[in-house]
Specification:
Keywords: Calcium, Cell adhesion, Cell membrane, Glycoprotein, Membrane, Repeat, Signal, Transmembrane, Transmembrane helix. The strands form seven sheets. Strands 16, 19, 22, 23 and 24 form a five-stranded mixed β-sheet that branches. By secondary structure, the chain is mainly beta. Strand 22 and strand 23 form a beta hairpin. Helices cover 11% and strands 36% of the residues. It is rod-shaped, with a radius of gyration of 44 Å. The protein starts with 8 loop residues before the first helix and ends with a strand. It folds into three domains: 116 residues, Cadherins (Immunoglobulin-like, Sandwich), CATH 2.60.40; 97 residues, Immunoglobulin-like (Sandwich); 97 residues, Cadherins (Immunoglobulin-like), CATH 2.60.40.60. The structure holds calcium ion (4 copies).
Amino acid sequence: MSAPRLGGPAGRQLLRLVLLQAAWAAGSGPLQYSVPEEAKAGTLVGRLAQDLGLEAGELAARRLRLVWKGGRDSLEVKAESGALVVQSRLDREELCGQSARCALHLEVLVDKPLRVFHVEVEIQDINDNAPVFPIKEHHLRIPESRLPGSRFPLEVASDADIGINALLSYKLSPSEYFSLDVVTNEDQSKSMELALKKQLDREETPVHHLLLTATDGGKPELTGTVELVITVLDVNDNAPVFSQAVYRVHLRENLENGTLVIKVNATDEDEGINKEIQYSFHSLVPENIKATFGIDQGTGEVRVKGKLDYEEMNSYEIRIEANDNESGKDDPIFPCVMPEA
Ligand SMILES: [Ca+2]
Ligand SMILES: [Ca+2]
Ligand SMILES: [Ca+2]
Ligand SMILES: [Ca+2]
């Protein structure tokens, strides 16, 4: 019996077996490939047979095949070429979430002789997720009395990608009243506040609509937005204003009690209780005038209440107040001139 000679068919087989075992014994680690997530079916991941030292002619006999742990079948080995290709969708976010590194660990088997190889396929992130805010509309209610420099916390956006594809920058639509203050915390997370830079005025602009945009660092970049709806709450910062500074009325004497002399009217730019007006005679109006005229607190109607006698008094000057629950007053002079008899 003669030993197989190197160069003959048996010799080649022996040599290859030795080389494969040597590679395995050296503990050279798994074969490593990488492929971007969401690559189309059929995309080449690696020339597996070639990298394992198998020749095209022996692929069928040695049955190169994948063994999956966990039942995934998103990669396959092509029988004809021994190439490792994408078979179905690889979604990095689904496979690995926010992990910095995402890899599939496969076992590759060949027969004759039976060998097991380890293969690691790194799934690379692509920028396929836009930043998302927790809500589409963020409502804030800010009293118009808040001072410039006041701050209001906002929620940041999230991005399902990793690395630069999830690195967000923020921008606020132009506003003369508000600016954005983004702070990077020690743990690299971000927090964000809306800063008031100019005193609000509900009477001028009762509601502000701003758009906050988050942009990731991917190429191309993706954006997400949230609408900020800021309702300015009223404070009682406007006094009632009469429609005229002076009301002039000419009356005949001996008018019946209850006769309407005039209806004064004041308005207030505030809202709700801050614009509710009460009319009254000024506290300095003399008693004899108060005995002659009466005023309706709610309507501002001034009516005759006592006797008008031209000979006794031919002109009256009455100061009337409009009061909006203590905030302010307006008190026009109300000359009531009696005509010649
Ligand atoms: Ca992204
Ligand atoms: Ca991604
Ligand atoms: Ca008011
Ligand atoms: Ca106001």
